[in-house]
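Hello,

Our lab assistant flagged a job as stuck in the queue for most of the afternoon. It eventually completed. Since we weren't sure the result was trustworthy after the delay, we are filing this so someone can double-check. Below is the sequence as submitted and the structure that was eventually returned. Let us know if re-running is recommended.
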Amino acid sequence: MMHGKEITGLPVYDASEGQKLGSIKDIVVDIDSRKVEGFTVDTGGLFGPGHKILPMDEIKSIGPDAVMVEDKTHAVLHDEKREPKIRKILDEGHTVYGKKILTRSGKELGTVSDIMVETDSGIISGYEISGGVARDISRGRSVVPMTDDFTAGPDAIIVPDETEQRMEESIGGLAGAYERTKESAGRLAEEGKGRIQQQFGEIRERVETVVSKTRERIEAREIERARGSNVAYDVAADDGTAIASKDQQVDDEAIARARRYGKVHQLAMAAGVSGFEEEYEALNRTATDQIGRAEEELLIGNIAGQDVSDKEGNIIISEGNRIEYDSLQRARQAGVVGDLMVAAGISGAGSWWEAVRGSITTYRERGEHASAAASQRRFLVGRISDTELRDKKGAIIIREGEVITPLMVEKAKDENKLADIRVRPE
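-- returned structure --
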């Protein structure tokens, strides 16, 4: 048996060839049957863009360090359309994480922070919960065993009233020990801070790796398409260093400079490359998902060391209270998750977290900009101009009656005159 979050991120290996096929990205849980149906796998482009589906029945074993399959025909990783049940679960967004657990008499025991998975069968044997009664009993998280009396719905999991007593018995007096020995509690707290700091470092590396590799893969395809084209405007590094001048060809030297200064995407756009909007949106979704999961791993169940408020001064969580899923959601809505990280005692988290989210916003904006520019370019190129268009110095950009070319569009864009282009009705 393993925690669900222990499985997430594990590499997937083909035992027949010793080849890594990808890494576990998400666990797909059928709430009704209380079973893991499969996993989404990030293949890193090995089998094409996007993630693949690994059904539970294709897995030979799940160990502490890897998920093993037998894949001599390279057929265990499926496209989503071949797994309609899993596709339906993904489309509906069903998840157990953050779901409330209530007794049949209406008492909230906490929220789901993890699941316990029988690795040979995929059956969910229990839920790890935080907050509520779990907080009162243990100052931490408790495991609620799965029974036939469970009712798992879209908004909550309903359990028998005696579940609370089972939780108390499983704790074994931890709460009393906590109260009796302040020195021990302090030591445990310091150890907890050390663990969460270590966890933050691991998650930070994981998020940066996923985002970086995905971005590099997209940019590599962009720049290869741009190779040999002329740029329509100057491209420079943030410090002003020239990467490529207007009308310069995108060659190996320009590409090397763009990579050195992190301007590959900008160089490709200057060369008129488009068509990667969906991949940038996929990058945004991947990064947002990684960050969201990391936030939950790091924060839920930990104590806030200081008050956290929204921009209007409304308290989201007070000092000394345990961070639960609801308070994390409020922090997300208010845009102060970085403050919540600091309150949880994660050193260096605030500025880094905001920087990561800022970089994702930048790529979303780039994608939207590229999408709008690409749509405009597709509309104009190949049509006949109905008017003459000149630049600020009076030079002709487009003659009336000419067929509009991509270079004409880029020149008009440089002069901020795209809106002035008129085309003849078809």
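-- support follow-up --
The delay was a queue issue, not a problem with the job. The result is valid. The radius of gyration is 27 Å. The longest strand covers residues 19-30.
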